[in-house]
Each structure stands twice: as C-alpha cells, then as structure tokens.
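Q: Structure tokens for this one, please.
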Amino acid sequence: MTGGLRGAAGIEDETTVLVLAPDVGERSVDACVAVLDGLGERIDRAVPVTVSLAPAEWLSVWERDSGAEGALAACVDVDRTTRSVAGAGAAEGAVPVERVGDPTNLETLGRRVSDVLQRVDDAGDSVGVVVHSLTDLVRHVDEPTAFKFVYTLGEVARRVDGVVLFHLDPTAHDDETIETFRIVCDAVVDASRGRRGPVGG
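A: Here is the predicted structure, written as tokens:
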C-alpha cells in the first residue's frame, strides 16, 4: 500500500515520522493509514489523535483502507465541538474515545495520549499514533509550542518503542514551517505528489 509514498520504505526503525499530504478529501488520512499499514508487525494497535475529522470519519477510513478491524486501541479527539457532528456516534461503540476540549492545551493533550500509550504498552502491545493533523494544531498554537509537543510526544513514544506519525498539509504552510517540523522528526514521508523543495524522504 505504501509503494507510492516517497520515503515510506525507510521508516521501519524510526520513532517520529512527518507525513506530508494535502488535506483534500480523505487523501491525508489515506496516506497516514498507508504508512501505518506499511509498518506491518512493528505495531499491534493504532491510536488516532483526531483534530481535523470526527472519530467516526477517521475510523471509517481506517476500516476501509487497513483491513485491520479491531486494531484501534483508542481515539483521542481534540476540539470535537467545533466540527460537524454528522456521524458522531458511529465510532463511540467501536473504540474508546478520549476527549480534549481545548486545542490550545497541548500539555493536556500530550498527557492524554501518553496515558493511552502506557495502557497499550502495559497490555503488551506495540503502538502507532497518528496526529491528524499537526496543520490544525498550528492554527491554535504558535510553532514553538507545536514543536515542543512533537518533540515531547516523540520521547514518550520512544520509551514504549512506539511510532508517531504527524500529518502536515504542505499546501497550507511555507517551506520554513515545513522545515521546522521536518527537523524534529526522524523521517519524512511525502505523499504530496510533485512537491519540490528541501523536504524529502
């Protein structure tokens, strides 16, 4: 599934991965799911951190694209109340949903994700986290705060031998911003077909 994603082949041992994909339709979620799927046996469970989409929408793409039914450990949903509530209940019974009401409070978000990671690790499973999307978080906080969040969450994942994907829409940021987040991640997967510049796999 990851064959068309530049940089995807070289992330087997990396902890933090920046996934560049335009946030058009479901394309960015598809790219994130493809990267997780490409990790194969390295991860047992996945944890989406949903900012752009409601949990039900993310779960729908996951089930369609990954074929890994039941592999979601939990979903951490950010700023749920400002998004459309269409289909909001669909994910509720399928996976536990942890909610963080304030998208500017990345400390609370980090703690919530860290708690989920620890529970999965305590159960003996390896975990992959997808923050979808870093682009949306940057709309609520400044870049240094977001940079610290990416770094800190990466350190948490490293302690449990997990992996964290951070989606960023390259069409929504200048090259300097993309470079800021590229340098804090171990690897970059570019699904933004045809994009040129300093970011590569």
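A few notes: The longest strand covers residues 45-50. The mean pLDDT is 83.
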